[in-house]
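Work package 3, deliverable 3.1, input record:
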Amino acid sequence: MNDRRIGVYMCYCGGNISDYVDVERVRETIANEPGVVVAKTAQSACSDATQQEMIQDIQEQNLDALVVASCSPKLHTFTFRGAARRAGLNPYQYTQVNVREQCSWTHTDDREGATKKAINLIRAGIGRTMLTEPLEPIRIETVPQVLVVGGGIAGLRASLGLADIGLSVLLVEKSPSVGGWVDRWGTMYSHGKNGKQLIAQLVDEAKQRKNIILLTGAELVEKSGSMGNFMVRIRVSGQKEDITANVGAIIIATGFDSYHPGEGEYGYGIDGVVTLPEFKELLDRYDGIPIRDGKQIMDVVYIYCVGSRQDESQENPNLYCSRYCCNAAVHSSILVAEKNPRAHQYHLYRDIRTYGKYELLYDQSLETGSTYLRFGDDEPPVVEKCSDGKVKVTVKDLLTFGEEVEIKADVVVLVTGMVPRRNDELVTLLKLPVGRDRFFNEIHPKLRPVETMVDGVLICGACQGPKNSTETVASALAAATQSASILKKGYVELDPLMASVNPELCDGCGECVAACPYAAIEMEEDQGKKVASVNRAGCKGCGGCVPVCPRDAIDLKGYTDAQIKSMIDGLLKEIV
Amino acid sequence: MAGQAIDDKGISPRILVFSTNNISDPGIDLAGSSHMHYPPTVVVISVPCTSGIKPEWILYAVEKGFDGVFLAADGEECAYLPDCTARTSHIVQDAQELLGQKGFEPQRVRMSGICSVCAAPFVNHMKEFSEALIKLGSARNPAPASGRPGNDVPQH
């Protein structure tokens, strides 16, 4: 019989689990399961204090396995493996049970059902843990070089960060020159620097570092290998031969596109109706009063949230707030007031989000004479062409109880947001996860903000969602630091996911050899008979050979036949 | 209870889902983080790749008490095997055969590609599958074949 000594910890997740699952009832039931020596609950299992408690229990109670029932394994597998390791336990003697994403959060309407499900999910986790064996991770030597895709401010800043930590950089930019969006901009908030000069300075710094190779007109066309040692192939336009290189990590910094309004959307198409980026370019051309069509710009109307927070009934709507545009529009209006103190400016908004220190910008715009009018979602402003060349905007202002206001403007600025840039080839090539808003998806916005589901592939900047340049640089540096934490150790540890053959059952038929596309299974002699043998370095751990074996002789470590059946038993056990 | 299929005795079918660690399990997680609902009688075991599922496990699950088994496959997105869909369908066929030999309806096993953002499709699959399984009746106490609505399964 099994004489395992298992510790089970169930997390409240500060209400995220305990609001929908009777956590204490789960604990009481689980405490009686065979093999369970310790059964405890915690407000927050991932906290240092609870981890410390686990370590203490493991050592004092002589536990030989750990089960944590909390959030998705994507979040804290490494946290609790670390706790197990620090307690002297083999990290693969721990099982994560997902009672948040796959239980409490999805059964918020059924406390009894969710509680019973949590009990059985943990029983399955215990069933699996009963049969764990100590495993050693696969160690892969890492290449101290990083591929950065995208040469905008994020890619440039990440490259400099990496170079300064001592990692070589291959910076690949698709267009003929680096700089991206920021290279087109004039004065930027809050440092007051000029975007073009900022990029020139970064490029200059990059050139001074011997460990940065910059390739423009270049695209990533092939990737193989895994975290720590990828092989990448880069195609440079005009060159016959592709460049191949080995890199330990890949940082994606491909940026955003600006929303392009449809014909007629808030009058787009009428002369005088422009998008925010178009308006910024116009502003940057003039030191004094900006001129359009030979006339001084005196009256400006800004319409906010164009292309953002769209109605759900629209086709492929952008449901998200684009975050940067309120600040950018308010900042533009201050620049207009500086260039032309006599200008009249009207901001037509649904909600203003000038968060953090940008609140000061908003104050400043009021001081410089900007007028704010609020319109309702159901009554957007109407934009029409006038015979005198001006553009008429009609809006019902909610701040004056629905008073109808008519403004004749020289320029109507559609405050357009950021939209995901289409990068279908890159998505397919790297299997990049794309989120609901079609930007690239990090594992967790707070806990693992620059890592993706693909190990060793990181994202930063506006390719993962709307960000201003300050936030973009912060995430670029985070990606650089994260790459360093992967690569500076010299090796990475991968899950020892691997098939293994029981030579006693194997009759050497060779079905598995044919089923493995990685040629990781070979036939060899074992005590005078021909048996299959799995090569540790070649096996990817998919388990594709397992169901193919007519003799049931192959098991995938961590997912053995006995473990899966034990989990099924646990899931079905009656609750008394 | 939103999105739940319940039979006339108030019991919703027990469904075992095999998901994949890197692709379909994150999709199922997303359904949870979006607070979408499916019945709590749906439970998930995550494995690296659906091509590694033994047909015997599917039979075992049904024999032990699950009413249906759903394979949330990676489809084209599988990082391991280019022919993952073909392999998984083959596993489903083998499982259907095994189920048939034991007197269970082959409709008790289903597969579909579930991607890492396929939260709503997953919830819909669970709803449809639950409804189909209610029509089949419980796997534990099969109703007589003739009296079972929607049962067009040849008896083995």
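Chain A has four domains: 6-137+562-572, 145-255+421-492, 259-417, 499-556.
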